[in-house]
Specification:
Elements: E1 2-4, E2 10-12, H1 15-29, E3 33-37, H2 64-75, E4 83-87, H3 97-106, E5 111-113, H4 123-131, E6 136-140, H5 146-153, H6 158-171, E7 175-182, H7 190-199, E8 204-209, H8 224-237, E9 243-247, H9 251-260, H10 270-283, E10 298-299, E11 302-306, E12 311-313, E13 323-324, H11 330-336, H12 338-344, H13 350-354, H14 365-372, H15 383-391
Parallel strand pairs: 3-4, 3-11, 4-5, 6-7, 7-8, 8-9, 10-11
Antiparallel strand pairs: 1-2, 11-12, 12-13
Helix pairs in contact: 2-3, 7-10, 8-9, 8-10
Length: 392
Amino acid sequence: MTITTSGAHSVEIHAGDHRRDVLQRRFNDRPLLVFWEMTKACDLACFHCRADAQREPNSDELTTDEGHRMIDELADLSSPRPILILTGGDCLKRPDLLEIIDYAKSASVPVALAPSVTPLLTPERMRELRQHGIKTVSISLDGMDADTHDAVRGVAGHFDATLVTLRELKDAGFTVQINTTVMARNVEQMADIAAILHAHHIDIWEVFFLISTGRGIDVNASTPQQNEDLCHFLVDASRYGFTVRSVEGPFLRRVNQQRHEGVEGLPTSDLYARLHSRLEEVLGQPTHDVCAPSAATRDGNGIVFVGATGDVYPSGFLPLPLGNLRSASLIDIYRDTPLMRAIRDAAFLGVCGSCSHRQLCGGSRSRAFATSGDPLESDPACLLVDCVNERH
C-alpha cells in the first residue's frame, strides 16, 4: 500500500515491512522461541554437536520444579506466548518429559520437541507424545546417503533409521521439521536432500549454517560464496511445498527480499548453478510460491536458550551466559541484559553495523563471537562482509 504524507511525496510501505516492525516490538518484550536443553545426555556422537552431548546427564540439571517455574514465567506473558522447544542432548532421556509437556499444556504454553533419532523414539512413544498434545517434532538429516549422514551422526545405520523415523512421524500426524547442518562435506548434496524431504512430504526444512562451537569447532564450514549460493538455492527449494528457514544464516532473508523486489544482489557461482539444475532435475519445475519466512529472529532477538543447568544464553550456539534461572528471571534476562538489548537494537560493529540489512539480517552473532570473540562484530560468513574485507 502507499501512504501519502502531508507533503508532495509518498512513501511505499510493504505489508511485510509493517509485520516485521510489529514483530520487532514484540521481540523487545518477549522471545518468540525459548529453547530448553533439558539434558546433556544423548546416545549419539555427532561430530558437529553444539551441546557436546554425553552419555549420562549432568547431576545438576534443572529439576522438574525448576522447569515448572520457567513455564509459569512464560505463562504469565500475554498471548501469543513464546513457543517452548524441548531439546538436548536428547530430550527423550528426561524421565519427566511427559510431566513437563502436560504442565506446559495446562499453562497454555505451546511446546515443540527436538528429539534424537535413537531406539527411544519408537512408534509407541510417538503416539504417546501426540496424546499429550505435541504437534511438531524436528529431527536431523545431514546427508543424501548413509555415507555422509552416518559419518556426521557417528552411528552406523542412522541414515536408514532416520528415513524410517520421519515416515513414522508423518504417519503419526506430526508436523515434521527436518534440520540439516550445511558444511563443506555435504554442500553439494543439498538438492538431493531436498528431494528426500519432498518425497516424504516434510513440512519444514531448517538449514543450519555451521558455527565452530562445541564438537563442531574442527568441522570445515561452507565459505561466504557458498553461503550466498546456498541462500539462492534455498529460496528455489522453498517453491516445492515445504517451508524453508535458516539458523545462523540470516542472510537468507536478505537474498529472499532482494529476489522478491527484483533487486540485483551479489553474484552467485557455479555451485548455485549446479544445485539449481539438480533441483529441477530431481523435482521438476517449481509447484508453489516461495515459502521462506522473513521474521527477523536471530540470537538474542526473538530467541533465547536455556542450558541444562539453568544458564541463559542468546542462543545455543553463543556460549556467553547472561544469568541463571536459579537466581534470575528468564524474561528479565531476555529484556534487560545489555548484550541482548544491543543485539535487538542491531548495534553491530564493522560491515554488519553499517549494512542496510542489519535489522532484517543482522548476521550470526554466534559466528561473530566464535571468530572474533565479540558477538557484536561482523559475521564473516556473509558475502557482503567478505567482499568489503577483501577490498580493505
